[in-house]
Amino acid sequence: MSRAAALINAWGIRPAPRRAQCFSRLTLQVSAVVDHLRSTLDLPAAATKAVGGAKSVAGLLDALDEQDEPPSDATMLADRIRGWRDSNLLKHVLDEYALPSMPKMDPRRD
To answer: Superkingdom of the source (predicted)?
Structure first.
């Protein structure tokens, strides 16, 4: 058994079910994240109503894209979301926070 396989067994890492929106025990309150992202925007009243109805990251991105003349902060937020891997919140959290803290394995050692 390779060292990596032994660590996976020792740490009890198991794949999450396909339909689950979680990584191991990591779950996200998407609506809270969308509310937080939306709170950083300074939008005119007409745009606030459209963007305020978004309940998902994809919905927020669509609402930002539908603005006729979006403010610069809305454009920057949309570009930031597009910069996430697959524009996916969970993948962004994993890439930004979880993966940097994971131990680095030396591929030359088995």
So the answer is: Bacteria
